[in-house]
Each structure stands twice: as C-alpha cells, then as structure tokens.
Design brief:
By secondary structure, the protein is an alpha/beta fold. It is built from nine helices and eight strands. The radius of gyration is 17 Å and the shape is globular.
C-alpha cells in the first residue's frame, strides 16, 4: 500500500519528457502512487502506456470539456483502453464555462460529458470531474442520474473550489472532492476542508500545475502531494499519519 496517493496528475505532458524516469524514481522513493489523467484520446493512450510501464502509475481515460473542443467521444476507441486493469476511472470530463461561453458551448459540452458518464456507468468505473464555473450545470446533469443508477454513479470532483453547500450536494450523490497545492498558500479552502467528512476527501497535485509550498513557482510533480496531505491534516487539526492513511484508503476504495 502506498504512503501517499496523488489522484490527478498529467505526467503524460511534454513537461516531463526530459526526466520522467527521475520523476518516477521520486514516486518510488516517497512511496507515492498517482493517477495520470487523459484529456483527449492521445493523452489517454499515453496515460495507459505509463500505467503499463510503471508500478506506481494508474490511468484515467477521457476527454476534457474544452482542451480539445474539436474532439468528440469516440466510444469504440476508448473501448480498446478501458479493459486494461490499471485504467481506474473515466475523465477528466465535465463542464467548463471559464474557458468557454455557456450560451455557445453548453450543448456540445453536455453531450460530451454525458457520453463519458454513460461509458463510465457501462464499465462500472468512477468519473473524474473537471468543473470550472459550472458546478450547477454538472449537478443538474448528475442529480437525476443518481436516482437511476444508484451507487454505480460515483467519482471525484477534481481541484474543488466550491462552497460547503455545493460540496454537500456532491457528497449526496457519491462524489468526493480533491484539493491541490493551492491549499498550502491560501486560506480560502480551510472551511470546506474542515467541514468535509474525512472519507470524502482526496489529495492531488494536478501536476505540472500549482506546485505547493515549498516548491511554489516550480514545475509540480506527484511526489509533492505529501505537502497537500500535510496541509489537510494541519487545517483539520488532525494527526498527519491518520489523515495520510485515510486519504490513501479513500482512493483505494474508489478504484478497487
């Protein structure tokens, strides 16, 4: 069992092309595992390749709502990837109206999201949600599906920045929330971290972005997730070891 689990990283980007083996060695040294996230078909294939190669890496396959707006969800292509044992989730998928105009792009994003939700349900996989300026829209889609699919509908809302009330609505339909290194240098999320049940929290880096203190301003990497875990424990006023073990168990429960 790993000591730390970073549930959202992008080791499949060019940021790691020159020293990936060293980054993975630091995963081994720190006993950290990570889920590498696909944002389109090509990066999803790369995530699977990394999961095949490295013991510490798992894959999540899917299409980001706005990163590649010309790409629809080619189900048959993703069918070729989903049955590999270390593919543990579908996404990152969802909705994003920070980078896109809701009036123009809503229907395209909704279809793309629903195609992936249906795919995840068909294969009994959790969903990795990307939601930016779109929590209400995402919940409007997921809420009615919970009544139909029950516990099969589940997943995590990555890089959560919403309110306590929004978080509770996600918890009610079986979705956890995850926090990044941002919590090491702003107090904006202390209230939500304190009020969230420990079994509904995940730790992530979103590498290569938002490196935590003391690495702020540098390229992020999954082994730095320990700083996120330390901050969660400190904010909650709980023992670091107990929080660390709980967060790892949360991931293992989701992907098991």
């Amino acid at each position: 069992m790993p000591r730390y689990f970073d549930i959202h990283s992008h080791l499949n980007t060019p940021d790691y092309s020159s020293d990936l083996d060293e980054v993975v060695k630091r995963l081994k040294d720190t006993e950290t595992h990570t889920i590498v996230i696909g944002t389109d078909l090509e990066s999803s294939k790369m995530a699977v390749d990394l999961a095949r190669k490295y013991e510490e890496i798992y894959a999540c396959i899917g299409i980001h709502p706005v990163d590649n707006s010309s790409q629809s969800f080619a189900k048959e292509k993703f069918e070729e990837l989903i049955n590999y044992p270390k593919v543990v989730a579908v996404g990152e998928c969802g909705m994003d109206f920070f980078h896109a105009d809701r009036d123009v792009d809503y229907e395209r994003q909704k279809k793309l999201f629903l195609d992936q939700v249906d795919f995840a349900l068909a294969h009994d996989k959790p969903i990795m949600i990307h939601s930016r300026d779109a929590y209400e829209e995402v919940l409007e889609i997921l809420d009615p599906l919970k009544g139909v699919h029950g516990n099969k509908l589940r997943g995590n809302v990555h890089f959560f920045t919403g309110s306590v009330e929004v978080a509770k609505r996600f918890f009610n339909i079986g979705f956890t929330v995850s926090f990044t290194g941002v919590i090491t240098f702003t107090r904006d999320y202390d209230e939500i971290i304190k009020s969230t049940p420990i079994n509904m929290i995940m730790s992530e880096t979103d590498s290569p972005y938002v490196a935590p203190v003391p690495y702020r301003g540098k390229r992020n990497e999954p082994s730095y997730v320990s700083e996120v875990v330390k901050s969660i424990a400190k904010i909650r006023g709980e023992g670091e070891e107990a929080v660390r073990d709980a967060l790892v168990n949360n991931v293992l429960s989701m992907i098991g």
